[in-house]
């Protein structure tokens, strides 16, 4: 028992160190979650590196979640270790057997004005709850634990998707978490023997003769203890400074004036905004954060850019998918009122930037998930118009899966223009696209069947006929693998997780074991 009391804080210190390391990583993960500029620039710097290395940057959200889980795990172990320690402390303070533990527990509590105590429970009647809520370490520990629970529980997918405002505001409790973490160790509840006392009364020499402490002919004196210096602030200082700098930079950029040049209301309650901003420069597939102060000063929502880098404006398509988007669409629908002011931060990089690095690209969009590929397809149209000979991509397969027919109207004009352009240039095989309708009834299907022999699709007006149901991915991948037996194929998805698992599985399944033959690389948009 005596040796346990002398070394009682080892487990807590060890776990606190691991917890500090995970918090350090968490701040960096939070920066990656916030999509700081450094993420985009790092992708650019690594542009000459191997594809697999660059792809790791696109798992920033996975990294963010993994570190958060590790923080939760180590926090739980850290709290349990404290509970065991306080249980031992309480028993040691109440002990009357004259053991080393009981002697160490009453040190300095007998002498007022001294801070040489080891046991934070100063009297036999003091409870663990009292120490918890009256000490700096205990109180801040409770606060940051509650903050962590709130952040984790509000970040589950159901709440994040259905009640985004709850997730958004609750996640910013991280400010309280980091402040509490920074001062958590100031109270000095984790203590160690002073250097002077350690030299005079080393535990290895004096622990066994504790009953002779302070006897006039004894070489051992009562040990003196002091609070160990706080360490947690060291783990968070550098990343917090970086985070503050990044927020200041983003605030400065968001205050730059945005001019809305065109507003278009598409079917299925989809709003298109075309905008201009001084110094704005983008690449295909990138996205921006959008804020509308008249709706909420604090909420910033990510939207993929649907315009091409070659255009003299940038645009986004916004689908009604919650209170914020519904209020924004309603505000633009009111023609008599002035156009709402929009603030923009970005653009930020995504996996779709790499689409032109592949010989063959497979683009899969589900519903509004088509937006990053609209930018890609527009850019292709411009590259062909200007005879860009640096285009590495030889073939593009485009799959668009929608629940309702009205959604196809968003980019019908674009797809029709690409059809004509490919025909005029004799590159009909360059773009192979398929449209799939998953929400249909017998009337729609019957109408399409009766008009199947017509030159254009009855639903979209395009030459490519709409398919009913979902793609048979095994057939699609097998066809692509046979058509391009020695190509590197990039598969890009903006859609649900279930579809991501299916496509990722088939990328592994249809990639050849021979690295010289067809290889499929899966890429998914993460927000």
Automatic annotation (TrEMBL):
GO terms (molecular function) for this protein are: metal ion binding; superoxide-generating NAD(P)H oxidase activity
Which keywords has UniProt assigned to this entry?
Answer: Cell membrane, Electron transport, FAD, Flavoprotein, Glycoprotein, Heme, Ion channel, Ion transport, Iron, Membrane, Metal-binding, NADP, Oxidoreductase, Transmembrane, Transmembrane helix, Transport, Voltage-gated channel
Q: Can the keyword Transmembrane be found in this entry's annotation?
A: yes
Q: Which InterPro entries match?
A: Cyt_b245_heavy_chain (IPR000778), FAD-bd_8 (IPR013112), FAD-bd_FR_type (IPR017927), Fe3_Rdtase_TM_dom (IPR013130), Fe_red_NAD-bd_6 (IPR013121), FNR_nucleotide-bd (IPR039261), RBOH/FRE (IPR050369), Riboflavin_synthase-like_b-brl (IPR017938)
Q: Among its keywords, does the record have 4Fe-4S? A: no
Q: Which cofactor does it need?
A: FAD
Show the Pfam families listed in the entry.
FAD_binding_8, Ferric_reduct, NAD_binding_6
* Name recorded for this polypeptide: NADPH oxidase 2
> Native species of this protein?
Ursus maritimus (Polar bear)
